[in-house]
Structures are given as C-alpha cells and as structure tokens.
Design a protein that fits this description.
The chain is built from ten helices and eleven strands. By secondary structure, the chain is of the alpha+beta class. The chain has two domains: 199 residues, no CATH class; 102 residues, no CATH class.
C-alpha cells in the first residue's frame, strides 16, 4: 500500500484500486468506558449497514465502493501508526472476502463466536481510558471512482460528518458506553485532531516527529530544542539521547530561564528528575504510535547530537 495524499492510498497497482481510510469516532461522556471490546458478527453487520447508509448520504457515490469495517474500538494512536497497519489489515481481509466480482460489498469484522477478537484487530489494553475511541473503516474501489470522491470525503467529513441518530444509538447500546458524539473522519482528519490534542497536552514539540513517521517515514526528523529531550527519527525508529546529570546540565545550562542554569543542588535534582520523566513520557507516546524507541547514552564529554547520528 503506497501513500497518496489526504488519507487516500493506492494498492493493487495491477488493478488500479485506491482506498479512503477513515474511522468511526466515538466521543465518550466523561468517565464512560465501553463494556464491549468488539461486537459479535450479527451486531457488527447491523452497524456497518448504518455506516454505509450514512457515508453515502454524506458523500453521494460512496456506495459505489467496498466498505470494510472493524467493529472493534481503538485508541487513536493505534490507528495513527506508520504503515497504517489496521487499515492494511482491513484491505487484506477485503481481498480475501467473497464476492469481489459481484459489485460493491459491505463487510464487517468483529469478535468470533467465543467473543475473542483476533489480532491485529484487538486493541491494546494499555491504551484504554481515553475520551475518544475509534473504529477503522476502509472504502475501496477503482482509482477513477475514488479520485472523483476523495476531495468530498476530506471536505465533508470533518465539517459535517456526524453519524445519524440511530447509528449513534446502536453504537452506544452495542458497546455499552455513554456516547456524546459519533462522527466519521478520514485518517487525515484524525491526524489533525490529534495534533491539536497533543498541543493542549503540552506534547506539541513531539508532534513533528510522529507526523514524519506517519507521512514521510523515509525522511529524518529531529527534536533539538532544549530543555526538551533530544531525539532523532530515522529509518523507522527514534533514538533518544540518554544524558547523565553532567551532560544534561552542560546541554541545557546556558538558558537563563532553564532550571539547569541554577546552582541550587536540590533544584537541579528536581529539574533533572522532571527531564527524565519527560523522556519517559515521550517514549511512551511514540511507542503508542508504534514507533520503536531506543535510548543512546551520551556522556558529559560527548556531543549528544553526534552520538545520535553515529
């Protein structure tokens, strides 16, 4: 699957097929946690039929495309991973499903008869608890058909992509969660929303690294802005400079507003502990997005940036 713009991707080059990658986003009421991780097949089928109807109303002509839907909810970070693994899996399942020569299909995947969700459509239990849960879907069809619709998906869904009331109600009842809003987004829309959320959470310095891994994975990106941790993205992974106290103070002590510039020992210790916590926080966020992280030890006498490049 090769990347195109705005959440529209190309695959199956020999048949000129294209995709629009999207999510059915559930914004939960405060404190609400879904009681069901994935729907059984019958409920999944009912829900995907309503999704198909809604999407065709929002973007007339969408019914001319295959709709493949995972009736399992994920943290947004699990969708926004390099290579788009959840959507790639949906495409693999689409290609195996029967009826390829019989016109557009509406296909849903959920839990099996024992209630087990097969990998990789099982969400990471360590990423539960967020206010937004997303269910990935894929719209696929001939390249000329997708090209004719792709701008409409990008323009319409973010502005007017609310699910119909009966769709939201069925999702609420099926997943056992209180839902404030249910809406449709392309992965491009979801990326923009997450960028804003990370800004509000004080994680905006890290976002360009995540965005590069998602949209330009073969490029290099640095976070080199003291007093933030120093890190480098290249070749699909991130290296974080592991600075000992001397190297940390040497790197950050020049800024008058930086805690590392103080000579108070206890204040220095607290600032260094905060710096280490910030490193762990960045590593956890990157790993949630499926980006491999390694730490590179950088002694006080070494140039930390050169150590990451070496």
């Amino acid at each position: 699957m090769s990347q195109s713009e705005s959440g529209v991707h190309v695959t199956d080059a020999h048949v000129m097929s294209m995709h629009v990658m999207g999510v059915f986003a559930l914004e939960l009421s405060g404190g609400s946690v879904p009681t069901c991780a994935a729907l059984p097949q019958e409920q999944a089928g009912r829900l995907v039929e309503l999704l198909a109807r809604d999407l065709d109303k929002l973007v007339p002509g969408a019914s001319a495309l295959d709709l493949v839907f995972a009736a399992a909810h994920f943290d947004p970070a699990e969708v926004l991973r390099p290579g788009w693994p959840l959507h790639r899996r949906l495409d693999e399942l689409r290609q195996r499903a029967p009826g390829r020569e019989q016109g557009p299909r509406v296909i849903a995947f959920g839990a099996d008869r024992e209630g087990v969700v097969p990998l990789p459509l099982a969400a990471d239990p360590g990423l539960h608890g967020g206010q937004m849960r997303v269910l990935p879907f894929l719209l696929s069809g001939p390249a000329e058909t997708v090209r004719a619709l792709q701008e409409n998906f990008e323009e319409v869904l973010l502005d007017r992509g609310m699910a119909a009331a009966d769709t939201a109600l069925l999702a609420q009842e099926s997943f056992g969660a209180r839902i404030e809003h249910a809406r449709y987004l392309t992965v491009h829309d979801l990326t923009a929303i997450m960028a804003m959320q990370y800004q509000h959470q004080g994680l905006q310095p890290l976002w360009p690294v995540i965005e590069t891994a998602l949209l330009a994975p073969d490029e290099e990106e640095w976070l080199d802005a003291p007093p933030e941790p120093l890190l480098r993205y290249a070749s699909g992974e991130v290296q974080i400079a592991l600075l000992d106290p001397g190297a940390w103070q040497q790197r950050n002590g020049q800024a008058a507003t930086n805690p590392a510039a103080t000579s108070d020992v206890q204040e220095l210790e607290r600032a260094y502990e905060y710096f280490q916590a910030r490193q762990r926080q960045f590593a956890a966020v990157l790993e949630a997005h499926g980006i491999a992280v390694t730490f590179a030890h950088c002694p006080a006498t070494a140039d930390a940036r050169e150590s990451l490049e070496g």
